[in-house]
Amino acid sequence: MRIQLSCSILKKKTLAVEGIFSTGRVSKLKRRLSMSELSKQIRARLEHDPAVNLHASDLVITDAEVVHLKGVVPDIRAKRKAWRIASELAQGKGVNDELRLQSDLKEGDDRLAEALDLALRKDSIFHTLLIRNLNAGDEPLERDSNGIELSAADGVLAMAGQVPSLSHRRLAEVNAWWTPGVVDVDNRLQLQWPEEENDDEISDTLLLVMEKDWFLHGHEIRVQVRNKEVTLLGRVASSALSQRAEWDCWYVPGVREVHNSLTVS
Fold this sequence. Notes:
Strand content: 25-35%
Number of strands: 11
Helix content: 40-55%
Distance between the termini: 98 Å
Structural class: alpha/beta
Number of helices: 6
Strand order of the largest sheet: 4-5-6-7
Largest sheet: 4 strands, mixed
Number of domains: 3
């Protein structure tokens, strides 16, 4: 009787353990299926967005606990929109954006870092900050000091450190995107003090960007921002300048959409 009881208990325990592992396998399978379905939904949305143009993009969406966007896209608008669409459909799951911009200009990493270093030092808004070019052998910043550490690897410009405001953080990223040959920007700059994002701050930053972009000097460009969506109004001399003004808006992190209503004349 004792032996039979022990076997019965053992059998129940074995079934219970198998049930736990079976449940775990089913849950894992469901997660995989849901992530696979999520990838299909993201791809379907991207296929219907002319800005992304999947047929002209080498874009891969991988199934994992975090959605990974990888590949090459034609421009900054496609990159930003792909991330936004994936984030909307992911419903709280993380989205890792590893998309790269297509670039025919192959600059070495040291040259990329040197160009951004020079641009930041020449920009008056960064004059009070320490700039450290790690590719050039500069010493890293001391802890909690205001400044920017920059580096370049495989065409990607990375920035870390601490800056006084959101405008500093955003303008630093725009400067990085303006660097010829860059394929991506990894902006990990932290704020010295917490600051709430709002449309007015984005609008002020965009006006600064338009002012600093010498290609757009002398053109009448007005900016309206509502719920992080930007509308460009005014007049420029060519369609190339109209596109440049739109790209400048997309370079600013936090911008959700850009409506280009510029007139070319």
